């Protein structure tokens, strides 16, 4: 690649003075600035947005619940993706070169896989949590306790990290692809090839858990609709608004399920195109153009920045918590006991 010839005189390399350097695909200044702006904005939003989610849930005692602990752990996965993956992917995507060393290339890929799968498992457990809360709201507190939530969180993290590092760290993903790996290997590149068998396993893991979430949320919304009709029917018969404890609990759980359902849909819209392309690409000889791959990757990455926006839009308590954190009131004594569900946060 680095041999000088008249026809290759205009070719730019990632490392001009190294043999075996990857070819660099230059980008004009205008699009380059736009790409950096879009990608950096996504990384910053993922880092600080999810940091606010974690601080809110962990600091304010009123938010200490099994569901919110799952949400905080999900935010942690998105936060770590924003810290360890997205900034480096920004440079790789815009510059078409990897400048962070071969060792971190593997870690970068392992982190990417770990946090992605951790997010999927968290969302799957959250959907199960919401299903139990909707189907039996009064018994729910005794079924989905903080210890159960902790076990779900531990499983999500341990399985995701062990699976990703075992697959990508040992090189099992590239078995029987030695020729392709040799052709892709160059200084300044970070291309990870995954063979058909492991691409299929990855897709099935994604698909099965996605199917579980879809089925659970379908049942949740059917049950929630039936509950709403019963409450409306009762109100029409009695001529007044029903405000029993059971009705208030049901309404709260339906709202939480709706909000988290939006988060699940956003996750599917973000990640499904990437997984579909991965499995199609593996079976058709890796024909996806680089720019298409980068677009799909960044659509998926942006999901980590979307969840805090969803919570801010649907949860008044999160908006109040952000206000207290940003204004520094969270540093006051007894700030952890502030009532975030009252009309106004003081």
From TrEMBL:
Its main location: membrane. It is a multi-pass membrane protein. Keywords: Cell membrane, Disulfide bond, G-protein coupled receptor, Glycoprotein, Membrane, Receptor, Transducer, Transmembrane, Transmembrane helix. Coiled coil: none annotated. Residues 49-311 form the G-protein coupled receptors family 1 profile domain. It holds the Pfam family 7tm_1. It is found in: Cell membrane. Signal peptide: none annotated. It comes from the Eukaryota. The chain crosses the membrane at residues 33-57, 69-89, 148-168, 200-222, 256-275, 295-314. SMART domains: 7TM_GPCR_Srsx. Belongs to the G-protein coupled receptor 1 family. PANTHER family: HISTAMINE RECEPTOR-RELATED G-PROTEIN COUPLED RECEPTOR (PTHR24249), TRACE AMINE-ASSOCIATED RECEPTOR 7A-RELATED (PTHR24249:SF78). This is G-protein coupled receptors family 1 profile domain-containing protein. It comes from Bos taurus.
């Amino acid at each position: 690649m680095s041999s000088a010839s008249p026809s290759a005189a205009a070719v730019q390399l990632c490392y001009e003075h190294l043999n075996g350097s990857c070819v660099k695909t230059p980008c004009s200044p205008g699009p380059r600035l736009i790409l950096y702006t879009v990608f950096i904005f996504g990384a910053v939003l993922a880092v600080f947005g999810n940091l606010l989610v974690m601080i809110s849930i962990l600091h304010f005692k009123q938010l200490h619940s099994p569901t919110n602990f799952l949400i905080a752990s999900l935010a942690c996965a998105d936060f770590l993706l924003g810290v360890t993956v997205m900034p480096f992917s920004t440079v790789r995507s815009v510059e078409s070169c990897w400048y962070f060393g071969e060792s971190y290339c593997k870690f970068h890929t392992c982190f990417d896989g770990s946090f992605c799968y951790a997010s999927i498992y968290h969302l799957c457990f959250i959907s199960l949590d919401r299903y139990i809360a909707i189907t039996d709201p009064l018994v729910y507190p005794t079924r989905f306790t903080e210890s159960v939530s902790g076990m779900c969180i531990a499983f999500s993290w341990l399985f995701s990290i062990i699976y990703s590092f075992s697959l990508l760290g040992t090189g099992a993903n590239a078995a029987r692809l030695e020729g392709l790996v040799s052709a892709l290997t160059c200084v300044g590149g970070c291309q990870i090839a995954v063979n058909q068998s492991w691409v299929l396993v990855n897709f099935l893991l994604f698909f099965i858990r996605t199917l579980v979430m879809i089925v659970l949320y379908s049942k949740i919304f059917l049950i929630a609709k039936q509950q709403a009709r019963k409450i409306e029917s009762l109100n029409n018969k009695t001529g007044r608004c029903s405000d029993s404890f059971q009705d208030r609990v049901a309404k709260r759980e339906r709202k939480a399920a709706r909000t988290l359902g939006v988060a699940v849909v956003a996750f599917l819209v973000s990640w499904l195109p990437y997984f579909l392309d991965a499995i199609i690409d593996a079976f058709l000889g890796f024909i996806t153009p680089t720019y298409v791959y980068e677009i799909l990757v960044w659509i998926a990455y942006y999901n980590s920045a979307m969840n805090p926006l969803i919570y801010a839009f649907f949860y008044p308590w999160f908006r109040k918590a952000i206000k207290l954190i940003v204004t520094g009131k969270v540093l006051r004594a007894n700030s952890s006991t502030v009532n975030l569900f009252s009309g106004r946060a003081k």
